[in-house]
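Predict the 3D structure for this chain.
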Amino acid sequence: MDLQDLGSIAAAVGVPAAVLVGWWQARGAKASARAGIAQAEATYQAALDAVRAEASTAHAQWRRGIQREAYAAFLLASQKLTDSSRRLLRASEDGASIDDLQTTVQEARNSLLSASLVVSLEGPDAVARAGNVVRDYSLLIVSIELEQALLNILRKKLAADQDVPRWPHFQVRAQEALGQLEVTADESLDTYDPAVERQARAAASQALVNLSIFTSDERGVLLDAAKGGDPTDLVDYASTHVALPAEQKKFIAAARAELDFAGPGPGEPSR
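Done. Predicted structure below.
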């Protein structure tokens, strides 16, 4: 409908043409306005969706970075703990001071426990479970090596000259008693007798008491070693040493699976 048609309608109904034309133009303006508003709303929604998607991607990348750092810190903590424990063990074998190394091992142990906690918090469960196994094997190795280091120190103390009355006599008696306990405590022998073992342990314990240089706990360490052997000679130690690298690889595989699932980080190519 054009303006000429509107003039004819206005004349027919007795309405001033200017009023009717103004109404018609206003109606068109409202329709245009509604279309503009709809377009603006669509544009705003598209922009909002884009911002949300970008924020979601940025958050995912940030979280992935946190996880990567947590996983790496955990593996490094495990390695640092076992390395420092091995240095302490070698020092005890060489007769060197281990005071500073003991502090280093304790700090490394605390770092591993803290890093393990972060991995458990960051997850997911598969990575946390793999991390727990690595943590437990690492701590077990260190526990055995610390026991062996203490045993090495006590044996060197027993073998050294001490400012104790009649030291050579008591020293030889103690060494012989420990050797006798080692023989009688061998359960693989047909001649093994628990009663004889108890007598030999009591005799060795008294011989160590006579030296007056060992605490009750230290005497227990020497007696247990005479009966059961060195901690690092036991099957648990050897099997754990073999198992730890394998479990670390499993942890790495689980961590990679999680990081790959999360998508590439900033500046990384898509896989």
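The CA atoms of residues 151 and 222 lie 7 Å apart.
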